[in-house]
Amino acid sequence: MDDMAVASPWCSGKIHWFTLKLGDHFEITELGKLRHILGLVITQNRSEKTIHISQTVYIYKMLVCFGIEGATPVSIPPAVKYDLSTVQSLVTNDKKTKYLNYAGDLYYLSIVGSLLFATQSRPDIQHAISLVSQFGSNPGILHLEATKQIFCYLKGTMEHSLMLGHHGAEGFDLVD
What we know:
With 176 residues, the chain is α+β, with helices and mostly antiparallel strands. The two termini are 28 Å apart. The protein has a domain at 56-156. It has helices at 12-25, 56-65, 93-103, 108-118, 126-133, 141-156, and strands at residues 36-37, 40-45, 50-54, 162-165. Helix 4 packs antiparallel against helix 5 (126-133) and helix 4 runs parallel beside helix 6. The chain is built from six helices and four strands. The chain is elongated. Helix content is 40%, strand content 10%. The chain has a four-stranded antiparallel β-sheet, with no helix packed on it.
């Protein structure tokens, strides 16, 4: 096992007992308060009873990896402006050649998989990714354009994070 985080509403004594028992079977290293795990940045604010989960660094690395760090940032959620269907998929050799020339070194399934990983802290892109992922076996140019639209949104909102818990007097606590 490479990474593991232990969180519990139990008292710290029970967490300590658990990690000791785990250490009886595996070599473990306790690194203290959780700050990073699997590309996620975790920030806890005890006074506000919130936890923020972000992937700013992961999103930036993804933009660089796919060579689209120069994309125009937008702050409006991706509504996938194209009416995506299998009609835009690659049926003829001519369409396949045009797609390969357009896509260059971009691999559609790698893009979709990377975007899917970003949904851990960005539920606002889940619908758009579910739409583009349907065409992984035979993507067309418009399908690739839709993924670029999602990247533009992520670039414009890179600093956004998922907040667990509540802030303010109203509501309920998810985080204690």
